[in-house]
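Support case: 16G complex. Customer-provided input:
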Amino acid sequence: MDFVDVQVAGEKKYAKQDDIPIQYGTAGFRTKGNRLKHVIYRMGVLAAIRSACKNGATIGVMITASHNPEEDNGVKLVDPMGEMLGPEWEKYATEIANVPDKELGSALQALVKALGVASLSKSRVAFARDTRPSSPALAEALEAGIKTAGAQCQNFGLLTTPQLHYIVRCINTNGEYGKPTEDGYFEKLTGAFIKLRNMRKTKKMKTLESYNACLYLDAANGVGGGKVPVLQAKLGELLKINLVNDGSGKLNHDCGADFVKVQQKPPAGVSLAPGQRWASFDGDADRIVYYFLGVTDKKFHLLDGDKIATLVAGYLKDLVQETGLSVNLGIVQTAYANGSSTSYITDTLKVPVACVPTGVKHLHHKAQEFDIGVYFEANGHGTALVSDSSYALLQKSVKDTKLIEKQREACDLLLCVIDLINQTVGDAISDMLLVEMILAGLDWDVEQWNKAYTDLPNRQLKVKVKDRSVIQTIDAERKASTPPGLQNAIDDLVAQYTRGRSFVRPSGTEDVVRVYAEADSPTAADKLAYEVAVLVYKMAGGVGEEPKAPE
Ligand code: 16G
Ligand code: MG
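Agent response - structure generated as follows:
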């Protein structure tokens, strides 16, 4: 096997645009869209090699930059079961993306030799893209890479990130997980949603009379916007979605899940009537947050990833109990989880909770240690994973006449809930349907959901430093191990605040250090975040202006 054609096309049409190094980080490669053509061409070839290493299983490639500004773009690889690329391959991706044009062929040659790959003719790659202006040209570069490498390729056009993850898993399980098409995806999710709503009616569990089937949704002007009408057509009256930021405006501009979470306010230009249930997707629809304006206090309330995790875990815990089976359940969070949510999980839900570093791969991996693992980042990315053995146990128990009818019914219900949940990755559409189903089942409105616990006021800030790698963290990013003295100084500040907590970490997607702080009042949280930001600026080589004190 040689890479002569790959090398020639690479030098001619997909030559490096600059020599600035680029790294496969938490969410793949991400930078300005006009810097990515060569990177994505090369990732087409790498995906073909990955496929060969997985005995010809289909590898997915998604072109998106999620919640980043419209002019950015990015690319990430999807492994055969729909999970993120195995971390051990991130270094190969980084190496291949950065080699000089003249060495591309030889670098690929060396890689396949080291991996023991003899041919790429049986390799398969499936890909999709989001709605960014730069995405079509990048998709062409990707297709060229895959085809020039000699692999087969399937172009799924515009998809949300979780839809591509789902399709990859369907292909590689020969349809056992579902039909490998967008239509198959909607059929599976809406089929489960409709069945669950009807099951609850026939079993007289709740009348659902007071559930308000009207949801207001901000699609961040992203790829999710175009998918909602398809979903709506299948749901009919069961859920009426009023869509804003459907794709006609600028992507992620003053809208979307990231904006709402970080700014702690609604998307620009929308006015919430008190009590309305609102949700926001991010640009590639793998995150969702809910929010509302209080009926009595008229204040903005955010129902973020932590609130979704606790709602889902509480619901699943009750259902598991009803089955009477021995299935353990756990929740996985990151340091960004609000302190109140962690206390609620431990003290009220009494469910084990684990904390891992930021990034889906860490959460997903940890969640697999439970029979049912619910994982959510506070920013709204999350899902629930069910182990193969628990799934098999449920399937067996549904028909087990030794169990009482109520138990068999609970097993049936749980199996159906599992069908509603995207098992590959966090999915805004699937999470939305899950939340809506649970709220309907419990007969809850947003106020009731929000009452579970009260978030501690919190603030996030960014600090620009010369080299963010001078900050290293331990204890799932909750403590800084370098530079020396920084953590002690943070501890001293935190000790001055009631219910204070703060941590700092280098961002994996931006050239900044992130600061998080929470305390018992918004003013205290703002002040603590500011003071910690100043520490970072002074002790970790801040550049530009010193952080500004809160007003
Ligand atoms: C990426 C991660 C997300 C994480 C975020 C943190 C994936 C698919 N996405 O978007 O999970 O929360 O990065 O960004 O892993 P930061 O490192 O810039 O704070
Ligand atoms: Mg995203």
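Residues 305-427+445-450 form a domain with the Alpha-D-Glucose-1,6-Bisphosphate; Chain A, domain 3 fold (CATH 3.40.120.10).

Case will auto-close in a few days if no follow-up is received.
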